[in-house]
Amino acid sequence: MRVIVSSLVGAGLLAAFAAVGSGLISGVYEQTKEPIAAAERAAEAKQLLEIFPRDSHDNELIDDGFAVDAEDPLLALRERGTGYRARRNNEVTGIILPATARDGYSGDIRLLVGIDRGGAVAGVRVLSHRETPGLGDKIELKKSDWVLSFDHKTLANPAPDRWAVIKDGGDFDAFTGATVTPRAVVAAVKSAMEYSQNNRSALFEIEEANDS
Do 105 and 155 reside in the same domain of the chain? Predict the structure, then answer.
């Protein structure tokens, strides 16, 4: 009988400790949830402004988002994403699209691709990746300026068949010992440009009859 009582007491204590622990974890989560979300939002807003600087628009980019479905193969998103519009005097002057290069050396490379109203790349930034340190991670702006080579490029300049790394007959540099990573990013940026071109009216809120 004592063994049964002891077991019941032990089980009760374990349940109590579990409940207390769960409550503490829940409390910590609730206390940190908003600060973490605020920090993530601030970091994202900073990256958006790297693509479209403050003096290039008069709206808050982070507050002018639109849903991007994960169904279009050109953007290759794993899940629904968010795009952003830059405006001046309420006219859309540029967009920022989420895109994924699924064929990175170590997996997905998530990107932000900025495109201006004329169809030129305004900027590209890497959101996340798992590429090899010292090799493939040169796609990050803090590691090299390679990603800036996309600035001002269009689907006509370079020509479509030149949207590739030099090793593949294109115009974009690769990294010594790491061709797979830049190859994947170049292809993903080109695909995002094609997505923008295919959906220009909706993305830039254009009424075709009135747009020159």
Answer: yes
